[in-house]
Amino acid sequence: MSTEQTSTPTLRVVSGKATPEEIAVLVAVLTAASAGGNGGAAPSPRRSLWSDASRVPGSRVAPGPGAWRASGLPH
């Protein structure tokens, strides 16, 4: 069984003259980005700021008559 690889480059510089160091930096950045930066673990879902109770100023308005009006008034 042969383990020969094709000589087709994975990256190609389209314009400019990239140095070997610049290409190495590019490869390092792309490799880190593809790894996800967290060791391959699934990213935790982001929690909406709308559901964060610590962002609500003052106390919550209790439901009942006039609650909709009280919700717009300063506390």
Keywords for this entry:
75 residues, mainly alpha
Q: Can you offer a commentary on this structure?
A:
By secondary structure, this protein is mainly α. It contains 2 helices and no strands. It is rod-shaped and about 75 Å long. The mean pLDDT is 74.
The biggest sheet, with number of strands, parallel, antiparallel or mixed sense and barrel status, is: none
Low-confidence parts, pLDDT < 50 over ≥5 residues?
A: none
Helix content: 25-40%
Structural class determined from secondary elements: mainly alpha
What is the overall shape? rod-shaped
How many DSSP helices? 2
Give Rg in angstroms: 27 Å
Query: Helix and strand string, N-terminal first?
Result: HH
Span between termini: 77 Å
Range of strand content: under 5%
Number of strands: 0
pLDDT average, as an integer? 74
Overview in brief:
The protein has helices at residues 20-35, 67-70. It is mainly alpha-helical and 75 residues long. The chain starts with 19 loop residues before the first helix and ends in a 5-residue tail after the last helix.
Record the SSE blueprint.
Blueprint: H1 20-35, H2 67-70
